[in-house]
Amino acid sequence: MEHKAIGQSAHYVVPLRFSSQQWHGVRAAPARAVRAREVRLRDMTGREERAVSSTNTPDALHLIDALFADEELAADRPSQSAQHVAKSSSPRKRASTRQTIADEKSRFSAADLSASDRDRLMAAIYQRTFGDRIESTLTCAQCGNPFDLDFSLTALTRSMDAEPSVAYQVLEDGSIETSDGLRFRIPTGNDELAVAGLPPEEATSMLYERCGYPATAMETNHFEAVLDEIAPLIDLDLTASCPECGEAHTIEFDIQSFLLGAILGTQRQLLTSIHRLASAYRWSLDEILSLARNERMRFVELIEEDLPGDSGYGRSVSV
C-alpha cells in the first residue's frame, strides 16, 4: 500500500454511464462529444464539509467539482505551461497561455454530468465517507412506535443497473435514440440550474425542451418513464413495514439530500475536531481542514483515548 503524507488524500474511481456531453476545454471534432467513462475523486476534507450549506443542487455540484482529482492539474505540481508563462516575454503570449491553463482546469464540470451519473457519484462519495449502510429511525404513523430502516447503498444501486426494457443507442453527439424513434439528450446539472426557481410545470416543460423533447402532458409522462428506464436517479420511494403492527410506510429516499444532509449533520462535529486537534497538536486551521475526514477522525480518537470519560465523538449518521 502506498503511504500518504498528512493532508494528502487518497483517490477512488467512479464509472460513468451517460455523461457524454462535451466538457469545457476538451478538444474534439465538432460533430463528436467527448465521452468520459469514469471520474477520479479524492477523499473529502474539512474544506468541503465546511462549504456545504444546503441540500440543493448547486451545493451538490460544488462538492463534486471540489472533489474532482486530476494529477496533471495538482496545485502543488507546476505544469510546463505554467512555467512557460513565467518565462514568456510577450504579454500577448502570456495571456494566451494563461487562458490555455484556465481552459485545462475547467475541462471538468459537475454541471455537465447527467443527473443519473451525478447521483452515482454522490452515492460513491457517501459510501467512501460514511459507509455503505443507510440507517434511519422512523415513527410508525399507526401505532406510534419507532422502527429502523436499514439497507445497503450498494445493493440499491445494483438493483438500478438492470437491463432497461427500452431499446436504445447512444449517438455520437451524446444524445439517446430509442427503438421507436424518440431522440433526446439526458438532462444535466446545467439544465436543472437553468430552470431553477420556475413553477414546477413550467420548469419541467423547459427542462425537456432543453433536452430536445418539446412535449404535451401525456408525452411528458412517456418521456419520464423512458428516462427512468435508461438513466434512473437515486431518488425513489422505498417501502417499509412497522414490525409491531405491520403498517406499511412509503419513504422517499434521495441520495443528494441524504448525502448533503449527512454532511450538514456532522458540521458541529467538525468544529469539535478542529478544537481538539488545534489544542493537542497546535496545528493551524488550514492544516486541519486539509486532512481527509477519516484521517482527521482517527487523530481525534487518539487524542480522546488519553482523555477521561466518553467524549461522544461518534461515526453514526441519521436522517
- Beta-strand portion reads 5-15%
Radius of gyration: 23 Å
H and E order: EEHHHHHEEHEEEHHHEEHHHH
Physical arrangement of strands within the biggest beta sheet? 5-6-7
Mean pLDDT across all amino acids: 80
**What class would the helix/strand composition place it in?**
alpha+beta
Number of strands: 9
**Gap between N and C termini:** 35 Å
Helix share, percent: 40-55%
Tell me the number of helical segments per DSSP (H or I, 4 or more residues long).
13
Characterize the overall form: globular
Taking the sheet with the most strands, its summary is: 3 strands, antiparallel
Low-confidence stretches: 1-8, 20-34, 71-89, 101-106, 313-319
Q: Could you describe the 3D structure shown?
A:
- This protein has a domain at 132-253.
- 44% of the residues lie in helices and 14% in strands.
- The radius of gyration is 23 Å and the shape is globular.
- 23% of the residues are buried.
- The chain starts with 10 loop residues before the first strand and ends in a 14-residue tail after the last helix.
- The model is unreliable at 1-8, 20-34, 71-89, 101-106 and 313-319 (pLDDT under 50).
- The protein is of the alpha+beta class and 319 residues long.
- It has helices at 46-51, 57-67, 80-87, 91-105, 115-130, 153-159, 189-195, 200-210, 217-230, 255-265, 267-281, 285-289, 293-305; strands spanning 11-15, 38-42, 133-139, 146-152, 168-170, 176-178, 183-184, 235-241, 248-254.
- The strands form four sheets. Strands 5-6-7 form a three-stranded antiparallel β-sheet, with no helix packed on it.
- The protein is built from 13 helices and nine strands.
- A hairpin with a 6-residue loop joins strand 3 and strand 4.
